[in-house]
Each structure stands twice: as C-alpha cells, then as structure tokens.
Amino acid sequence: MKKWLLILVACIMFITAGCSMEPPEWAKDSSDKGRNKTIKVGFSVSTLNNPFFVTLKKGAEKKAKDSGIELIAVDAQNDAAKQTNDVEDLIQKGVDVVVINPTDSDAVASAVSAANAANVPVITVDRVANSGKVVSHIASNNIEGGQMASDYIRELVGEGANVAELEGIPGSSAARERGKGFHNVADKSLKVVAKQAADFDRAKGLSVMENILQANGDIKAVFAHNDEMALGALEALKSAGKTDVVVVGFDATEDAVKAVNDGRMAATVAQKPELIGEKAMQTAKEITQGKKVDKSIPIELELIKKNK
C-alpha cells in the first residue's frame, strides 16, 4: 500500500511539473510572437544642411527614444540617387518601417518602389512621393501656407506692388505647392516681376536675390519658399541698401523667428517640424502594431509675425 502511495505522489508531481513548463515554440500563440521585439525604423532625410530638417530629425529621435523605437537616420545630402541607395541599405538592415523625406518628389519613386518590393511600409514627411505605395503622408498644407504668405504681403505692400519669389528645389512638392498657394493670391492682386529657384539654400538665396535686384530695382516684397532663402535674400537687400523691402519666409526656423522679432523680416510661416518628426514615429509604431493609420496627417500652420 505504501509502495502504491509513493507511486501516486510521484505521478502527481510529474504532471504538475509538466503543466508549469514553457510550451514549445510551435505551440505558442502566434499573437505572442514579436510582442517584445524592438521596432526598427529607418529615416531618410533629404538634407541635414537645413535647420528645418535638423529639427524634424530631433523630433523623430526624441519620440523614438520615448517609444522604445530603434531609429536609424541617414542624410541624403539633397542627392536623389544617394537617397535611393540609403533606403535600400535601410531595407537590408531589416527596418520595419521606412520614413522618407524626399529630395525630389518624382525621383524618390525608385526608393519607394524598393521598399514596396521588400514589403516595408513607407511613410513620407514634408514632401510627397509622386508614385509608389505610401501608407501615410505627414505634412503641413503647403498650398495654404503659400496663400497665407501672399495674403500678408498684399496686406503690407498693397495691391499691384512688385514682388519677387525665391523658389525651392525644382521638382519638390514643397516648392510646387508653396508656389501654387502664393500665386493663387499674387496672380490676382500683386505683380510678380521675378521668380527664380534658389534650392532652399541660404547662399543661393543671397546670390539669386542679388541677380533679381540688378534687373528689378523697384521690388516691394519677397516671398521665399523657405527661411534659409529668405535669410539669404535679407543679406542681399541689406547690401543693396533696401532694408524696407518686405520679406516673408517659410518654416519658422530659429534664425528666421529672431529676424522677425528684430524687425528685419516681416513674417515666416511656421509648420512645426519637431511635431512632424514626432508624428512620423507615432505612425510608424501604429503601423507595426497593425493599427489603421490615416493616409494623410495634416500639421497645423501658423503665421509668425513680430511680437508687439
């Protein structure tokens, strides 16, 4: 009897131990797989030679850190071919999502296609991709921003005044849309006597503005598609002794906001790059969690004028 009792106790202990064992990998619920996996996001920035995109990247880095995301950010240096190679490298590194800030809205198609072929979801920020499958686009309404700038210029200089336009990189959606918004108002109430691309660059903004002034001395206002060009234009205007010309930029970078508050620049359209970066990381995480995300995520604009 004692022998059978010992056998029974041994059997109960064996069964209890078996129940507490970790189930084999094949038997685990598929929903557990990847639950603790670190999300890896690749971020291709058009250029880090522009304060706006530096701030955008910082916003993404902060949100990624707070969200437990491993972020790999690379600088395309305004080179569409390099951007494609960068995105392909990010795919090889096993990113779960790729965020692209296109150097050129048409040329970025090859980078988006590479991600599509590898089944890596794509998010675009600030500038659109004109082809390929993009899960979500996060940006301000550039057309609305261009209209805001044009309306304010008209308010300051009056209808029919001579104005110049410094355009961004040809082919970028930001340049195209900001220009469209500007002309929606300017073509009806202002006289655009000169417009030329300065590629979102401060040094080019200076040289282009110098050239415009040589041919058009009676300019009352300048709209630049970004603050870097606006600040370059301010230098050219100062050298020419034309400090009364109204200059409106776009982005609300630190230098531009200071120029506005100092009275050297009339205004800048703020589109909150840090928030764009934060939203990109939040959206990337939601995608990896299988959540439905909006195809377009707008970021509110604000016209920054001098504090009174």
TrEMBL record:
Q: Does the keyword Signal apply?
A: yes
Q: Where in the cell is it found?
A: Periplasm
The UniProt record lists the keyword Metal-binding: no
Q: Which GO terms describe its cellular component?
A: periplasmic space
Species:
Bacillus tropicus
Keywords associated with the record: Periplasm, Signal, Sugar transport, Transport
Which segments constitute the Periplasmic binding protein domain? 41-292
Q: Where is the signal peptide?
A: 1-21
- Gene name, please? rbsB
Q: Give the chief site where it resides.
A: periplasm
What Pfam family is a match for this entry? Peripla_BP_4
PROSITE patterns in the cross-refs: PROKAR_LIPOPROTEIN
Regions that span the bilayer: none
Family assignment from sequence similarity: Belongs to the bacterial solute-binding protein 2 family.
Name of the protein in its database record: Ribose import binding protein RbsB
Subunit text: The complex is composed of an ATP-binding protein (RbsA), two transmembrane proteins (RbsC) and a solute-binding protein (RbsB).
